[in-house]
Amino acid sequence: EVQLQESGGGSVQSGGSLRLSCVASGDTVSVTCMAWFRQVPGKEREGVAYIDDDDSTYYEDSVKGRFTISQDNALNTLYLQMDSLKPEDTGMYYCAADGTDFCSYYRWDQFDYRGQGTQVTVSS
Hints:
By secondary structure, the protein is mostly beta strands. 0% of the residues lie in helices and 52% in strands. It has no helices and 11 strands. The radius of gyration is 13 Å and the shape is globular.
Protein backbone atom coordinates (compact mmCIF):
# COMPACT_ATOMS: atom_id res chain seq x y z
CA GLU A 1 0.00 0.00 0.00
CA VAL A 2 1.17 3.51 -0.82
CA GLN A 3 -0.04 6.73 0.78
CA LEU A 4 0.21 10.07 -1.04
CA GLN A 5 0.14 13.52 0.56
CA GLU A 6 0.05 16.67 -1.53
CA SER A 7 1.10 20.14 -0.40
CA GLY A 8 2.10 23.49 -1.84
CA GLY A 9 -1.23 24.79 -3.08
CA GLY A 10 -2.32 28.34 -2.46
CA SER A 11 -3.47 31.58 -4.02
CA VAL A 12 -1.42 33.44 -6.59
CA GLN A 13 -1.96 36.15 -9.17
CA SER A 14 -2.01 35.47 -12.88
CA GLY A 15 1.53 35.05 -14.18
CA GLY A 16 2.79 33.78 -10.86
CA SER A 17 4.30 30.44 -9.87
CA LEU A 18 3.66 27.64 -7.41
CA ARG A 19 5.40 24.35 -6.72
CA LEU A 20 3.31 21.42 -5.62
CA SER A 21 4.80 18.46 -3.75
CA CYS A 22 3.49 14.94 -3.23
CA VAL A 23 5.22 12.76 -0.66
CA ALA A 24 4.77 9.03 -1.04
CA SER A 25 5.06 6.62 1.89
CA GLY A 26 4.60 2.91 2.37
CA ASP A 27 5.48 0.40 -0.36
CA THR A 28 7.05 3.02 -2.63
CA VAL A 29 9.33 0.52 -4.39
CA SER A 30 6.24 -0.73 -6.23
CA VAL A 31 5.60 2.68 -7.82
CA THR A 32 6.91 3.14 -11.36
CA CYS A 33 4.68 5.86 -12.77
CA MET A 34 3.18 9.00 -11.22
CA ALA A 35 0.97 11.83 -12.34
CA TRP A 36 -0.71 15.08 -11.43
CA PHE A 37 -4.41 15.55 -12.06
CA ARG A 38 -6.53 18.68 -11.90
CA GLN A 39 -10.22 19.13 -11.28
CA VAL A 40 -11.94 22.35 -12.18
CA PRO A 41 -15.48 22.87 -10.82
CA GLY A 42 -18.03 21.46 -13.25
CA LYS A 43 -15.46 19.44 -15.21
CA GLU A 44 -14.02 15.97 -15.02
CA ARG A 45 -10.70 15.36 -13.31
CA GLU A 46 -8.02 15.47 -16.00
CA GLY A 47 -4.40 14.39 -16.09
CA VAL A 48 -2.02 17.30 -16.67
CA ALA A 49 1.42 15.75 -16.24
CA TYR A 50 2.88 12.25 -16.04
CA ILE A 51 6.33 10.85 -15.27
CA ASP A 52 7.60 7.30 -15.33
CA ASP A 53 10.52 5.48 -13.73
CA ASP A 54 13.10 6.63 -16.28
CA ASP A 55 11.92 10.26 -16.02
CA SER A 56 10.05 10.25 -19.31
CA THR A 57 7.34 12.90 -19.10
CA TYR A 58 4.04 13.71 -20.78
CA TYR A 59 2.01 16.91 -20.53
CA GLU A 60 -1.51 17.88 -21.39
CA ASP A 61 -1.52 20.50 -24.13
CA SER A 62 -2.78 23.40 -22.02
CA VAL A 63 0.17 23.17 -19.59
CA LYS A 64 3.02 22.40 -21.99
CA GLY A 65 5.85 24.89 -21.60
CA ARG A 66 4.45 26.18 -18.30
CA PHE A 67 4.37 23.17 -15.96
CA THR A 68 7.24 20.81 -15.16
CA ILE A 69 6.83 17.45 -13.46
CA SER A 70 9.81 15.93 -11.67
CA GLN A 71 10.59 13.42 -8.96
CA ASP A 72 13.18 12.89 -6.25
CA ASN A 73 13.35 9.18 -5.63
CA ALA A 74 15.60 9.58 -2.59
CA LEU A 75 12.89 11.68 -0.93
CA ASN A 76 9.96 9.73 -2.41
CA THR A 77 8.57 13.05 -3.59
CA LEU A 78 6.84 14.12 -6.77
CA TYR A 79 6.82 17.78 -7.79
CA LEU A 80 4.85 19.99 -10.13
CA GLN A 81 6.46 23.33 -10.89
CA MET A 82 3.77 25.62 -12.25
CA ASP A 83 4.87 28.85 -13.94
CA SER A 84 2.98 31.52 -15.89
CA LEU A 85 -0.19 30.51 -14.08
CA LYS A 86 -3.54 31.49 -15.55
CA PRO A 87 -6.97 31.82 -13.93
CA GLU A 88 -8.08 28.71 -15.83
CA ASP A 89 -5.45 26.72 -13.91
CA THR A 90 -7.55 27.17 -10.78
CA GLY A 91 -8.70 23.89 -9.28
CA MET A 92 -7.86 21.02 -6.98
CA TYR A 93 -4.62 19.26 -7.85
CA TYR A 94 -4.13 15.62 -7.02
CA CYS A 95 -1.22 13.23 -7.35
CA ALA A 96 -1.54 9.61 -8.34
CA ALA A 97 0.79 6.63 -8.49
CA ASP A 98 0.80 3.19 -10.05
CA GLY A 99 3.03 0.19 -10.63
CA THR A 100 2.57 0.20 -14.41
CA ASP A 101 5.40 1.11 -16.80
CA PHE A 102 3.34 3.52 -18.88
CA CYS A 103 0.55 5.51 -17.28
CA SER A 104 0.22 8.59 -19.51
CA TYR A 105 -3.04 7.24 -20.89
CA TYR A 106 -4.49 6.34 -17.49
CA ARG A 107 -7.64 7.93 -16.16
CA TRP A 108 -7.79 8.95 -12.51
CA ASP A 109 -9.72 5.86 -11.48
CA GLN A 110 -7.13 3.57 -13.09
CA PHE A 111 -4.34 4.56 -10.73
CA ASP A 112 -3.77 2.25 -7.79
CA TYR A 113 -2.92 5.06 -5.39
CA ARG A 114 -4.45 8.56 -5.23
CA GLY A 115 -3.99 11.57 -2.99
CA GLN A 116 -6.52 13.91 -1.36
CA GLY A 117 -5.61 17.04 -3.27
CA THR A 118 -4.39 20.57 -2.73
CA GLN A 119 -6.21 23.71 -3.88
CA VAL A 120 -4.68 26.13 -6.38
CA THR A 121 -6.36 29.47 -6.98
CA VAL A 122 -5.14 31.89 -9.65
CA SER A 123 -6.65 35.36 -9.69
CA SER A 124 -6.65 37.70 -12.66
